[in-house]
Amino acid sequence: MSLRLLLVAVAHARLAPIRQRAASLRGGADAAWDALRAHVAADIESTHLRDLLRDDARNAALTFACGDITLDCSRQRATVETLRLLAALGEARGVAAKRDAMLRGDLVNESEGRAALHTALRAPRGAAPVLVDGADVHAAIHDTLDRAYAFAGKVRAGGVGSTGKMLTNVVAIGIGGSCLGPECVYEALRSEPAAQAAAAGRSLRFISNVDPVDAARALEASDPETTLFVVVSKSFTTAETLLNAQVCRDWLVARLPGVNPAMAVAGHFCAVSSDVEKAADFGVEPDNVFGFGDYVGGRFSVHSPVGALPLALHFGPSIFRKFLEGARACDDHFAAAPLEENLPVLLGLFGAYNSAVLGFPCRAVLPYAQALSRFPAHVQQLDMESNGKSVASDGSALDGDAGEIIFGEPGTNGQHSFYQLMHQGRAVPAEFIGFCESQRPAHAKGRPLSCHDELMANFFAQPDALAMGDVDEAHPERACPGNRPSLSLLLPRLDAYHVGFLVALYEHRVAVQSFLFGNNAFDQWGVQLGKVLAGRVADALGDAAEAAALNSSTRGLVAAYRRHARASIEAVASGS
């Protein structure tokens, strides 16, 4: 038996008790879903949100807090009874048991025979052991973090490249979770006063797309003598990342003609990878390779060296530590708070309610903070790659669709883009995220409100507009039906701590929704299929004979592409 098959067999054996409990509760879970649907038919479908919002006691009962963070669910199409039924659904679906299994390191990623221990990445020193293959993962995590912090500290303190100039520009090369999470956090913090001060005189850029324009844009603003590249690929085999890394290596060597190529690469490249040998073959010094366990999936890896290395290089270790502290605070809340008061659980329950019971296939993530411009994209991957499934963890077909179509933009930009559809077209459940303080307060002379107050006025008004609507019988084209559900998340400020909390909050809500639907949130086999097919087409692009294996539609497109490529080459050769 292969090692992979053995791991899967072990995973099935270790999860057998949970499986048996889930099977015994299946009837109860179905009954819980049925009770919710019956409640909606009897009490919710005919009740408008403008009527529900008249009940002050209901509004208070649907508002929750974790420390200085407020979650207002009063604009959900729900009553106190709905909340009770949602909590009962969570109990019937074993949310607490599945959460606990994930947190203690059970092999909850059944198809790959792995744990899902992104929470261990931010556990404090001295935390209770979490064992994988008999070893406590915390020791290895903190050892790698210490090495990453030491490396970042050395570079920031005046570390030099191969020509003796200080390395002040970092270019991170990765794709998917190896880019979206770190880039999201970088954008969230680069205007925050403490983080900005810590990054003075430094720059951080990202390359993810295999489209050569992405690399060109990052490199055209870079000085090879002061640039440090961070190659992020757990296996050091990710096709797009390695191609971009080779482009950057070629660029570096060509622009440092007086430096031995091997010395140039060794002096300007580090890596985040579990395969030190492959990274070393590329030219990276083994001591400058930082790994993490296969119990952390890419989209959950921003708290690992995937995020720690580029972000600590740019902002310094202390800022990244604050980011981890915020995530850890959310982990503690998720692990201990009752389901009906647990912010990630509530987000997951209402997400499942809106999609599976009320039938809304989309969800808008709307941060009223320009600094969170990349947060919707991060959540998009986190959620849709995790829960975009049609098969349950045990291999059976899911009863309905899991996952939602996620999109979003910062407010108020989105208001002048797609909110029109949300107000008068399709109903889209929305999640508004706002902050009491601005990273960059400004007050225009003669204006009664600050710029941030104007922003927050929209943050408070839009959920009411979606909920209440507006009736204009004289001008029906102006009427807004309302009754559009939303929730509001209000945090005190957008700093490293609260960014950490927010990222972990959405990680956990994704897990909760998978617990409710029954799918595995931690694999992504659909992504793998696309990679395989892309490899076959790449062969056809290089060899016309290989194109015969493609279908006629793809063959036609490939032929048109090849004709244009030949024509372009001939035009260049002829000087036309």
TrEMBL record:
This is Glucose-6-phosphate isomerase. It comes from the Eukaryota. Pathway: Carbohydrate degradation; glycolysis; D-glyceraldehyde 3-phosphate and glycerone phosphate from D-glucose: step 2/4. Belongs to the GPI family. Keywords: Gluconeogenesis, Glycolysis, Isomerase. PROSITE patterns: P_GLUCOSE_ISOMERASE_1, P_GLUCOSE_ISOMERASE_2, P_GLUCOSE_ISOMERASE_3. InterPro entries: G6P_Isomerase, G6P_Isomerase_C, Phosphoglucose_isomerase_CS, SIS_dom_sf, SIS_PGI_1, SIS_PGI_2. Its EC number is 5.3.1.9.
